[in-house]
Amino acid sequence: MQKIAAFIVVLLLSPAIAIATAEQNEAVVSTAIDSVESTDTRLIECFTSISAEDCAINSQDDLVLNWWPWSDETNSNWPDDDAKARAGELLLNLSQNNPLSVINEELTVGQANENRQQIENSLPVISLSGELNVYEELDGHRVEIPITMTPLVNLSDSTIMYIYLSKEYSIDDHNRRLNNLVYEMKPEFGFSNQENNSTETTWILSETHLSAAGVDFAESPYGWSVTFALFGELEGSDTNQLLYLNQVELSTQEENVELDQFLVPIFAIVFGIIVITTILGNMYKEEHGMPIISGYWHREKANCLVVEFTTKSRRMEIKSLEVDAPWKLSSRFKSRFIEANKSVNIELKFKQSETTDCRLHIKLEVDELGVWTQFLAITTNID
């Protein structure tokens, strides 16, 4: 009887599944990646105050992106996870009262300009071509970015391409307003760093992440942009800096795109809800796939904490790692992947030991389980 019922469900769902699959495999709209910002253009990342005050930068020669890190404190519906992660990467101490700007990952204009002068004769350092393809998926959208990237000089192993999705005008549910607000950040480093060695790959801004960040192309289709910012060093140099910058206006709809372009029978919708609910329930039960995290102080190295990550059945990425004040890391933590069923020790070096417990905020992305923030508290190593 159960087999017959299952057969009927599959039979009834087949037309709807076929339609949904066809829709998801066909891009709603595509945007070419072509123009590149001038080599004189600086990337200014502004971490706003809690009152949504930005950095008041009016230069037309700068590309400005605003970060909002205060949703937990204000109950805003703007996303703040990536803002906190980015501040942690840059080792910034944010203030609720005053905005803070970072120029090409430097705190001063002078240092940013000095860094740029060191590589002026080597620009451009990469060639990047491709397109931004928007697809409908579930109740939202995903953005696939097939690219061809070719370094024109040798790059360091630590080179990272950051992808930022921002909106020109944003208003939260408390009527706060910001321009060029970053909704989603994704670092990519799966590309060749060797001169004239091309990489063809597809980067993806997933529907899960975009929906969680409040991105809704159907309700708010205009003003979106994707910024590509390559940070790292040229081979033989130890100066981290901006190597490539390009902002592309993202088209999200052709004329008026309706999410429900096809008439789906009522029974298919009902059964679809049942199937989706079952899938979500199963995903919730998959939390046993979360990694085990522990830590201990290194017995020989001073001010060195060893954090042990033991993955279970799923691959994961350590996206960011932050520590509560007064503890300070001696260098910026860079994201890394750990395969399933592996145990990896990561050494964290601190500038000095403190009398308070060492509290870590570790942002993980586990395959099929999404993004999680784990907390680890280690007793101080000061007796």
In brief:
This protein has 383 residues and is α+β, with helices and mostly antiparallel strands.
- Oligomeric composition of the shown chains: single chain
**Roughly how much helix do the residues carry, as a percent range?**
10-25%
Please count the helical segments: 6
Distance between the termini: 68 Å
Give the total of domains.
2
Largest beta sheet: strand ordering: 1-5-6-9
Net shape? globular
Structural class: alpha+beta
Can you write the helix and strand succession as a string?
HEEEHHEHEEEEEHEEHEEEEEEE
User: How much beta, percentage-wise?
Assistant: 35-45%
- Overall strand count: 18
Largest sheet: 4 strands, antiparallel
- Calculate the mean pLDDT score and round it: 86
Low-confidence stretches: 1-12
Rg is: 23 Å
Q: Could you describe the 3D structure shown?
A:
19% of the residues lie in helices and 37% in strands. It is an alpha+beta fold and 383 residues long. The chain has 2 domains: 221 residues, no CATH class; 89 residues, Immunoglobulin-like (Sandwich). Strand 10 and strand 11 form a beta hairpin.
Question: How does the SSE layout of this entry go?
Answer:
Elements: H1 2-24, E1 29-33, E2 42-47, E3 62-67, H2 71-74, H3 81-89, E4 100-103, H4 109-119, E5 126-137, E6 140-151, E7 160-171, E8 177-188, E9 199-205, H5 207-212, E10 224-232, E11 241-249, H6 266-285, E12 292-297, E13 304-310, E14 316-323, E15 336-338, E16 343-349, E17 358-366, E18 370-378
Parallel strand pairs: 2-3
Antiparallel strand pairs: 1-5, 2-4, 5-6, 6-9, 7-8, 7-10, 10-11, 12-13, 13-16, 14-15, 14-17, 17-18
